[in-house]
Inverse folding.
């Protein structure tokens, strides 16, 4: 059940492994993330073959603002920085993302372009869930898919509430 079919990694990213033996390692990586830390071991083991595991040195672009690769990224080790293009053709740093966090959840759901550019700020290990693999989970493991979608929905709701709170500070 290889999850890499049709996927082309960003330049500079190296596959960390694949196959059944590597799935146990991926399940452990999933357990270390905020999103999947409270999943049962058997759920993470079911989810593991659908995840793509990569390593990347510092300054690798994981995805670019405006791209439509339709993947969610779980940062297992290292750090990422998110940048947003400005009206003058430059980029402004939005935030630094630490290990255990995720980015790109909206794109994996709706397939729309990314709203920011993600660049590794230090050597990093990443797990990617593509839109195609999320679709496969929905077809092959509907209960697991419901749990994954519930987690993504809760995370997006939390971020929207935080953004709304920050917006109120500016009004």
């Amino acid at each position: 059940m290889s999850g890499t079919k049709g996927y082309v990694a960003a330049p500079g990213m190296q596959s960390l492994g694949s196959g059944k033996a590597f799935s146990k390692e991926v399940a452990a990586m999933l357990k270390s993330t905020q999103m999947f830390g409270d999943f049962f071991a058997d759920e993470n083991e079911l989810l593991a073959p659908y995840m793509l595991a990569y390593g990347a040195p510092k300054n690798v672009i994981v995805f670019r603002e405006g791209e439509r690769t339709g993947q969610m990224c779980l940062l297992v080790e290292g750090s990422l920085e998110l940048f947003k293009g400005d009206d003058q053709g430059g980029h402004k740093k939005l935030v630094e993302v630490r290990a255990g966090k995720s980015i790109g959840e909206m794109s994996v759901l709706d397939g729309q372009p990314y709203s920011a550019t993600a660049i590794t700020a230090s050597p990093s290990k990443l797990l990617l869930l593509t839109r195609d693999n999320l679709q496969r989970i929905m077809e092959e493991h509907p209960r697991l898919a419901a749990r994954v979608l519930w987690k993504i929905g809760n995370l997006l709701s939390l971020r929207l509430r935080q953004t709304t709170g920050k917006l109120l500070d500016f009004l």
Observations:
- Helices lie at 20-31, 41-47, 105-110, 131-140, 142-170.
- The CA atoms of residues 35 and 142 lie 18 Å apart.
- The chain has one domain: 14-163.
